[in-house]
Amino acid sequence: xxxxxxxxxxxxxxxxxxxxxxxxxxxxxxxxxxxxxxxxxxxxxxxxxxxxxxxxxxxxxxxxxxxxxxxxxxxxxxxxxxxxxxxxxxxxxxxxxxxxxxxxxxxxxxxxxxxxxxxxxxxxxxxxxxxxxxxxxxxxxxxxxxxxxxxxxxxxxxxxxxxxxxxxxxxxxxxxxxxxxxxxxxxxxxxxxxxxxxxxxxxxxxxxxxxxxxxxxxxxxxxxxxxxxxxxxxxxxxxxxxxxxxxxxxxxxxxxxxxxxxxxxxxxxxxxxxxxxxxxxxxxxxxxxxxxxxxxxxxxxxxxxxxxxxxxxxxxxxxxxxxxxxxxxxxxxxxxxxxxxxxxxxxxxxxxxxxxxxxxxxxxxxxxxxxxxxxxxxxxxxxxxxxxxxxxxxxxxxxxxxxxxxxxxxxxxxxxxxxxxxxxxxxxxxxxxxxxxxxxxxxxxxxxxxxxxxxxxxxxxxxxxxxxxxxxxxxxxxxxxxxxxxxxxxxxxxxxxxxxxxxxxxxxxxxxxxxxxxxxxxxxxxxxxxxxxxxxxxxxxxxxxxxxxxxxxxxxxxxxxxxxxxxxxxxxxxxxxxxxxxxxxxx
Length: 587
Prior knowledge:
It is built from 2 helices and 33 strands. By secondary structure, the chain is mostly beta strands. The chain has a 5-stranded antiparallel sheet with strand order 14-15-16-17-31, with no helix packed on it.
């Protein structure tokens, strides 16, 4: 058999939008959350076809429920909603509920086959858009529209206690992620920043006790070349030759070579002579080209679901925007960051049509496939499989290949709101605000062979040892990307940075221009096998800092990740440069 896809035409949440979906980590249950103010529990089975069974309706919220996540140990389910509440639910296995006949339609709870009890409530000030669990299931972090990130200790014997409220963002917090290695927290906001928090180490103090501080803010990246910066406008400067017809600055690129460290001035192409001036103008100051890395509130989604890899060595940030230099058009993308350099992305994945809003990693690590080293995206000794979702498409990638394994497009009539992987790693669920959910079941030959627990431990131990060797050689020199606020020491190796915290400055929000993606729309469902004959469908991306040359009439290079950095301590390097693309540049 081959991959199975199905949109289940059942009434999920009273025909209201479904905002979130998540699988239980050790059973065949999964949970959904919707605008009907409820959380629902389901069971899934796959026997020829994808089959679902309703289990229970959880009613406690007074407004729409935006997020559901099971704890890593499977004991609790957390749900957060527009009522500013996080409820913690627990299955009571001792209570069985027979289904009576002749039920009124008004009371769904009478259909429940299991009893889920609300054991705790965490009160927040405003609507909750996102939450995530600590890997030991003792804490949760919550993102809210009141611009805060709340950290709760849910293992407290006297009930959940908010141990910290972080107020570094200046707009809605739409995505949070807790480091699987239990050292960092991530938050992503509509203020166009990604913030990284680290806990101050204190002996004998549990992880879920709070005391986190913002050790880095990711908001800009350094592009190629320099741009000339006009002095303040005066009456005499309005006729400057550096202004376009609209009176705006016309950037002049200086040294566009990707390998340049200290750009030098490149003579500009001769232009029409400027009108003679009585006095020679003062030299125009120059500055490196930088751009904001994330989109603003123009993104048509409530969510920016950021995600760590299950090993904790990488994280993936949606709603990105990438520009090579001042002359290139920005490209909507998803950034990939390495744990070794958390403020500078190592690669980006172009989005086919709209901004990415969700990234979710498969919880299972897979064995490498024998496809030759030339096709590797990352030189790891295991494969990470992950899904990237925009409002209308889902793309499945792995870290060994530079082409997507699967592209799903136009599978729902409204925006995609969440994606989730089953604990066995072979089922992918997609929820949508059209009120329905879709499911993909992969065969083993499509995703590969999962690593056994023993092999997984060995693979991760090799990575830890490689990082430790690299850390012993690290000096206190900047990484070369100093546009983001962070300390120059390796954040993963410093136990206490009390005296090195930079003050958090208020961020000034600015409207982003209307972006048009240069990528052609993919087919409704595109599937790639590991066969040489399919390599030409998605040729290798250009590595280093080069962007692919795109044509509006071709689909080449539209989806492949592009390396913009290296990962020396994990042995990850950019493959050899492929030949230049044969397509024509966009006019």
